[in-house]
Amino acid sequence: MAGLVGLVAGALWAMLPAYVPNNAAVLAGGGAPIDGGRTWGGRRLLGDGKTWRGTAVGTAVGVALAFGLNAVADPVGALADVALPTFPPSAALGLALGAMLGDIGASFLKRRTGRERGAAFPGLDQLDFVVGALALAFVFAPGWTLATFSPARVAVVLVATPLLHVATNGVAYLLGVKNEPW
Ligand code: CTP
Ligand code: MG
Questions:
Q1: Which of 23, 70, 88, 147 is buried deepest, with most CB atoms within 10 A?
Q2: 33 CB less than 6 Å from ligand 1?
Q3: Phi-psi domain of 30 (left: phi exceeds 0; alpha: psi -120 through 50; beta: other)
Q4: What is the pLDDT of residue 181?
């Protein structure tokens, strides 16, 4: 049991810098869209839901959170008797920016498949940022990523993330800060 708690805690802790950017972008979004209004095949490249400000603020918040987690990893881990990962700057940036880029890539795919801004794309909506975060973390910090995201932790992330994503977006919708509950 303690082993399972440690596994789940370590996996979610390692993903926190990737979980927070999209939520920060929802709060900070607005302003100029990244695609500048450009279209491709009669549809927006990305759409008005992907902005420079949201992307920059989301990334910055994710990196800042990673540094904050570094400062408290030891005392928090000691409470539950688990070893929690810390984030070198390259890993922090990879996770945070990668999460944003994964979400942006999903919007690109949504527009190409005829989905308007805000339309749901089950599966993609819940895991786009996980794939983006892990991929860019691997590019920026390959050794750290391989050591931190063991197959068991990746399995936990793939199961837990969609549940967390549905829950946090549902709350954001009920609070009125997000237009759709996905
Ligand atoms: N947001 C942003 N920049 C990003 C991601 C999100 O500004 N890179 C903000 C936008 O205000 C966006 C809101 O966060 O409307 C919600 O994000 P999301 O659900 O990802 O965008 P949607 O508006 O639903 O658009 P899409 O269909 O392209 O996902
Ligand atoms: Mg959306």
A1: 23
A2: no
A3: left
A4: 93
Q: Give per-residue pLDDT as tens, 69-128.
A: 999 999 999 988 899 999 999 999 999 999 999 999 999 999 999 999 999 999 999 999
pTM of the full predicted structure?
Answer: 0.95
The closest of 126, 118, 150, 12 to 69, measured between CA atoms, is 12
**Contact by Cβ (8 Å): 172, 178:** yes
User: Which phi and psi angles does 102 have, rounded to 5°?
Assistant: -60, -45
Give CA–CA dist 50/41, Å, rounded. Answer: 19
Query: Which atom from ligand 1 is nearest to the alpha carbon of 53?
Result: 7
